[in-house]
Every structure is written in C-alpha cells, then in structure tokens.
Hints:
- The protein is of the alpha/beta class.
- The protein has 14 helices and 13 strands.
- It has helices spanning about 10-20, 25-45, 50, 55-60, 65, 105-115, 170, 190-210, 255-275, 295-305, 325-340, 355-365, 390-395, 405-425, and strands at about 95-100, 120-125, 140-145, 160, 215-220, 275-280, 285, 310-315, 320, 325, 345, 350-355, 370-375.
- A seven-stranded parallel beta sheet has the order 3-2-1-4-5-6-11, sandwiched between helices. It has a two-stranded parallel ribbon with strand order 7-10.
- Strand 1 (about 95-100), helix 6 and strand 2 (about 120-125) form a beta-alpha-beta unit.
- The protein is elongated and about 100 Å long.
- Residues about 1-5, about 45-90, about 170-190, about 245-250 and about 425-428 have low confidence and may be disordered.
Amino acid sequence: MGYSGKPLKPWLNIVRPIQYMLREQRLVFLFIGIAIATFVFSAVPHSDHRALITPGSISAGFEPLRQNRHLATGFGINWKTGKIPLSLKPKVQRIVVTGGAGFVGSHLVDRLISRGDSVIVVDNFFTGRKENLAQHFGNPRFELIRHDVVEPILLEVDQIYHLACPASPVHYKHNPVKTIISLTNAFPFFLSFFTNVVGTLNMLGLSKRVGARFLLTSTSEVYGDPLQHPQVETYWGNVNPIVMLLFRTGVRSCYDEGKRTAETLTMDYHRSAGVEVRIARIFNTYGPRMCIDDGRVVSNFVAQALRKEPLTVYGDGKQTRSFQYVSDLVDGLLRLMEGEHVGPFNLGNPGEFTMLELAQVVQETIDTNAKIEFQPNTEDDPHKRKPDITKAKELLGWEPRVSLHEGLPMMVSDFRQRIFGDHEENLA
C-alpha cells in the first residue's frame, strides 16, 4: 500500500501569504513605496494635456529630426505623408557563412563586416585558412566556429550563406583526413558529394528551424560539358553521372552531381517547407587568397610563372573558360541574397578566353619568357564554359566590372608575397 502524506489544512492557503508579508518588514516597505508614489504624483502640477497635443506642436517636436534627417542610418522619415519608421536604426543582421575561411567566403565576410552585420563563420579548415580572417579577430561582431557542416549545428541567425564544399579539383578528388568508406581508390571523391548533400541538408534544416534566408552557392559544373553555348539557367546540362567506382569515367561527377543534388534539396525545402532560398551558379573566379596549389587553372599559371616553371596547358589549349574577379562575385551574392528572386542565377564574367590566351595574359603580367608545356587533357574536362548573365542583369542589376587584365595583377601581388614569404621562412 503506497504512503500518502497528511492532508493540507485549508486555512493554510490564507495564513501563509499573511505570514510572508509580515516577515522582514515587507509590509513597512510596501507602505513607504505607496507614500512616495502618492507624494510624487501630487507634486506634479496638473494641466490639460489635450491642449498640448496639436498638429503644430507635433511638427515643432520633429523639427530637429527634419533638420538632421541625413543622420538617420538609411531610414528617413517621409515628411510629406507623415509616416515614421518603427526604428531609425537599421537592424544589425546576424549572418552565418559556412566555408567562410576559404577564398570566396573570406572576401564575403569582409563585405558583411564592413557594412555592419554580425557574422558567424563555420569552417572545418579543410581548405580554408585562419589567416584569411585574421583581420577580424577581436571584432565583437565576428565569431569563428571550427565545425564540419556534415554535422548539425544550431544557431540563431537571419541569413545563411552556404559556401562550404571543396571546390577545386585537387581538393574534391582527394581527402587525406576522413575517408567515409574505402571501396576503391576512387572513393575519396565521395567527400565532395557527401559534403554537398549532407552539409546542405543540415543548413537547410537550420534555416527552417530559425526562419533564416538561405543562399546556396552552386556551380557552373552543373552544366557539365555543355552542348549549349553560352549557358543559360534553363539549360539542363551535359554531365557524366557515373561515379568512378567500377568504370574509369565520371571523375568529376562527385562534384557535379553533388551540386545538382544540393540544388534539388534547396528547391524542395523552398516548395514544401516554405524556406526562403536563393541559388547562385558560380563560374570560374580568381583573386587574392586563392589556394596556391589547388589545381585551378589561374592559380596554377600564376604560381608556375612566379616560380619560373613552365605553364602547364592540358590538351591543345583551345578549351575556353570565363574568369570573374572575386569582388564582382561577392557583389552578386549580396544582391542575390537581398533581392526577391530565388534563382538560379549565373554569376560569372562572360569574357571568354582559351587556355592559351590565359597563359599569354599571365606571361604578359609576370614573365614574358615563361614557357608553355602541353600535357594530356584530363577526363571530362569541359570544352567550353561561358555564362549568359542576362537574367542577373535584368533582375539583380548585376554585372562584373573588373576585367582579367585589371584583376590578375592584384592576384599576382598576393601570390608573390605568399610564395616568396613562405620560401624565405623555410630558408631561415
């Protein structure tokens, strides 16, 4: 038989509050407070407040604001209609940038911090570098979290820029840190697909939970080796979907199909869960802070020319690419996130160069005596790649402004400092 305590006496509900008020002179302090309030209100002179509230007095009261309307931070008062915004100060947005320690991500963080936002960078430093963000250490509006997006994370944010994924051939074809499953020598490629799919799924889940707007940085690789030139956003692409497990084909499919799947997941969350999403398809981008030996053609040529090595051209060098400077890309991402259109949008420079023409520009910029060395072409290397940016021009008001001849010297200056700086430290 279970034990049951003594029943409570009904009069205790009345006695206990009285005992509480009588302890520690609480009742005395209550009467003192009432007396002070009575004295204050009786000392204030009575007046007809209705007579004070007139259209003239309201206008006079806002005269200082009218004279200093430009001091408001972007939110002015419409004096003709009399409408006053809820706040004269803009809301400081809390923004997550996954992969924010990388090449593009760090430049995006610079822009967000400079405009006054609070930024949280989430990066596992597989390809990112802390040095890219060193200028923000100590800034109270900047946070850095070492975290892999394939694991869930919970943050309270307004916007999410999802850039986390190995984007260069060297990085998305090789993973020395974690091989999920070892089936064949090709399975390290699974890293890129896994990060694209599971990482995107986790960030979309975060967006849904906290109501944040989500921007996915997809890639021009979704077009594969295109049969349409230039490529518009409605083109379905020409991709080899066979992952290199049993067949010696599709070595780029881990990245191509991973981004395609990420786009599908993004649109599914938008349609079924009402998540606000934006999709950018990024074409070849270059600039300071690129990884020096990441296998991309611009960084390869610049590093080789600075080291007095031959410029490696694969195939006949007639395949074409379009190169945009990183500041143009960041401007496009910001416009896309703040705009009202989902996308996808091509973000790239429609200026088209063959690999031989690019090599010649590098020679002119760094070393006119640099030699060119031809090697066999890589598998599934696209023959042509050029964005049609009509949609971005019309709906985002965006187009690139920095030409290759203007942007390349800025990248060369950064590479020269890093290559020869590292060399001097090794000698020491």
